[in-house]
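User: Some background: our group keeps a shared notebook of sequences we're curious about, and every so often someone picks one and asks for a predicted structure to add to the entry. Today it's my turn. The entry only has the sequence so far, pasted here. Could you supply the structure so I can complete it?
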Amino acid sequence: MYILTLALVLVYLPSACFQPATFPDSVNCSQGLGCRFLGRDVLCTPGEASPDPKLYPVLVLTQKTRNKLRCRQHQDCTPCVHVMLQLGLTGPPALGTSQELHGDTEELLQMHVFLSVQTHHSSNCLAVEIWLPHRHDWQTRNLGSLHFDCFPVAIGGELHFAAFTLPRYTSADVIRFTHHGPDCTWHKAKNAVRLCQVPNLEVSVDLEKAVLHVRDVPEGQHFNLWLYLNRTGRFEGLGKDNLKLLTGPENMTIPISQVFPCLCLQVWPNVKDQDLSSRTHLCPFANDTEALTRAWAKSHLEVKAFEETVSGSLAGPCDLPGEMVPCWRGELLACHPLHPQLHLALTPRVPQEFPRLRPHPNLCVQVRSNGIAHLQSCLQGYIAGSHQATGHQLLLRETLDFQGNSSFHVLEQSAWVHIAQAVSTRKSILVEALQNDILSGECMQLWHTEGSEATVLWACSLEKYSRTHWALAWMVTVLGTCCILLALVLRKEALKGWLRILKEDYHSRGIVQGRRVLILYSPDHVDFEHLVGILAGALAKLQFSVSLELWSRGELGSLGPMQWLHAQRREVLQDGGAIVLLFSRGAVAGCAEWLGWEQTDVLCPIKPDSTFLASLNCALPDFLAGKASGKYTVICFEELLSADEIPALFRTVPVYPLPSQLFNFLLALAGPHVGQEQRSSLRRHAVWIIKTLERAVQGCQPERPPTQNLPLLPPQLGDEQLQETSSLPCANT
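Assistant: Of course. Here's the predicted structure to add to the notebook entry:
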């Protein structure tokens, strides 16, 4: 529970609420001066200023104001303003002896001071006559002061003053000043002014509700309490019972589903004239991170495609800060922002259009705040015939320099790569073909900038190139299948074993009973992710229910790594599954960096959005508390990373180097209730999976140079091609 002290933010309250007239209780002057109050409703007309006299001084005024309290009885006070006018002399330029002035001092013995005070609803002018002693020392410039005690002022109100003397001279101009009355934060007002005596509020929050505790309601006073959502330009009441009359201490319950950062309240005295009441504004959840997360979850992003533009509109309970960013969704379902200039600051509940951006099935719009994508909506469902187009599109960026020369870059693996480097196979043919497609108009212009260094974004279809590519691939596949069958015929025993596995119910849930497995790994590079995909695909073939970052990029883009990890971890542990930590050199480096250990080797960096680093937040407490056993399993590819190089903290659970310990790893995943027949089946399957992994790991040996780039054409691997993908090269991790 945390206590919120009410900070009063008061609206203007007219002074007529306190006292019908704006005049002081008393007027007096300091010792040595004589004064007489002439009236409070005189005519204030300063008139034209006369030139300063040459033989005697001119009376000038300066002012000081301060706040006071006028009390009728205890705790029934109103604020007022005490005004002090300081009287002084200036000049003359050439002053003779006092004897020479003796005959001229009669004019200085008597003068008049006028003080005008105005509010928004009233105006008064006060006149005071002042006279000096005949034997005054004219060399003394400070004559004394005139005190007005005191003018009523509203809580948070203001008074406008003007003061002058008659006769009026050029060097003694009219002085004008404004005094702002105190609000309820003034230390003297809290316990003395009835309108500043408000209840104390405390807020407590649990998993299901928030409770507003109203305490210390002043005796004999009633207050109104209003719950509302503070939106730009308007307030919206929270539900039907948003206005409540407070007559004493009580507790108000607010469902946790309605607790947002913009949820605010107002408290004001229940008086006859509601418009003249001072109001307290309070937003207790403005800095609550859980309330902010809840507001994002309740918000909705709507994206629409028009003929030549794309628009987005955000609707939600609060006006959240952030920006809308269009992005390109590629093969792995990750969405990459198109260009730094393409973003719009969020305007609540108003459709916003992206200038010069044409709709395309691969385009999405994200709502981002503080570098995090909270919402994402794509155009695929808004464009007819777009469901088959997203997988065969390529995004190119053309940059024109001052001389008109063009350079092309391709969006590949969330990074812009020069087209010559991105196309690793049939480089010259495909590069030339894509440039010809742009010139011939077969590529679609998505967006362009204006200026001397122009940038153009193109979307090009690869479907016609894919048909040629896959025709050759099918021929190679058929030829390879024939060779494999021939080899199996020559090896009769191997053929029998293969047929025996085919006869078994490979998809039967009786082997592993659909146990859930969450594999957490470091995405060191694309080749290593292919290797992880081979392992995950083999487990999925055995009917394990596998969760993998590589297969969930779309969901990751919407939720973020931490929320996705929490959801997957909760489901796996609730179903009695297992969490597998796959360590590589990049994972060890990321773990060391996260834990602050010193490292001497140059290790591969980890992507900043990796779920492996996010998983350390959840896994490390379990390992430190000794609760990891039965929940976590640690593996590594022994040819790429020795088990001894895994941090000792994570070796407190079983560690299985693959592929040599694959069978024991499968037994650990299958659980303790595996019968003899199931063990035999897993052993036979392990033999074939080990061979697949061995061929894949061979490409990760140090003496083999790493692959620099992947083919430009997107791979389309099915279940039947699992064994073919095992031969893909994997860079050294």
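Suggested note for the entry: DSSP finds 14 helices and 36 strands in the chain. Residues 463-490 form the longest helix (28 residues).
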